[in-house]
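wait is this the right file?? whatever heres the structure
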């Protein structure tokens, strides 16, 4: 009764089942690795966000690349804002997905070096994007700012094209090397997303905190793939038993004798 398993149809079905099982197991393992990676990144971000502010020059310097370990770490700096060389970063959205600008203001430290400070989001003032928008002024004089340390933005990492020929004092990316050339000054690597002092009023709207990656989803996918791999042999056995039942029922049915010919 099991000779049907050697038929072409059943050989192909069995080979596909044997291929699916290890494939689904490997997909489950891959999803579990993704879960572990995302969980580790979430923990790294959480630790950085809850860290106590440290002087910014302990984590970055001119030409320095901000690492993943230091990203989002709270830092502080003492100096003054230089609004004369302030620029805006185009095509940025706020928490309501409204398109506007980020305000990027050089912050001159006591030793003369410059820290780039993203003071937050402002709306576009009108249909024209060529005129420099109205920007609320930052506090005057020497102050202390704190913020989350961020790496330089690049086209490769952000997907944002660094367009040329933009209107005066407008940029596409926040990049310390680019700003160092523009300012002719020593600019610390990376920039900070300002957290204090908070602006008077709602504008600029401070850049929001990063959210957690959905690591639990990868964990659920891993379990799902492994359940699928376990279901494949179960499904194969069910199909075999159904085929056996159908064949036995067909064999047990009495054959119909032809009716006698009319005389």
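ok assuming it is, sequence goes like this
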């Amino acid at each position: 009764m099991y000779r049907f398993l050697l038929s072409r149809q059943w050989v192909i079905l069995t080979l596909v089942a044997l291929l699916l099982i290890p494939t689904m197991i490997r997909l489950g393992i891959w999803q579990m690795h993704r879960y572990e990676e995302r969980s580790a990144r979430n923990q790294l971000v959480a630790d950085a966000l809850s860290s106590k502010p440290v002087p910014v020059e302990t984590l970055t310097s001119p030409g320095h690349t901000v690492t993943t370990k230091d990203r989002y770490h709270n830092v502080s700096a003492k100096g003054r804002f230089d609004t004369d060389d302030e620029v805006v970063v185009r095509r940025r959205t706020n928490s309501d997905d409204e398109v506007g600008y980020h305000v990027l203001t050089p912050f001159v430290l006591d030793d003369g070096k410059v820290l780039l400070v993203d003071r937050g989001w402002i709306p576009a003032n009108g249909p024209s994007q060529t005129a420099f928008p109205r920007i609320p002024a930052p506090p005057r004089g020497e102050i202390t700012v704190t913020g989350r340390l961020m790496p330089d933005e690049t086209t490769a990492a952000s997907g944002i094209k660094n367009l040329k020929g933009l209107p005066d004092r407008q940029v596409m990316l926040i990049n310390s090397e680019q700003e160092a050339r523009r300012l002719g000054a020593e600019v610390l690597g990376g920039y900070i997303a300002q957290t204090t002092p908070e602006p008077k009023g709602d504008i600029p709207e401070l850049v929001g905190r990063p959210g957690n990656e959905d690591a639990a989803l990868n964990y659920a996918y891993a379990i799902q793939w492994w359940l699928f791999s376990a279901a494949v042999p179960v499904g194969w056995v069910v199909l075999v038993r159904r085929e056996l039942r159908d064949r036995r029922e067909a064999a047990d049915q009495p054959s119909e004798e032809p009716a006698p010919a009319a005389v």
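The mean pLDDT is 90. so i think its the right one actually
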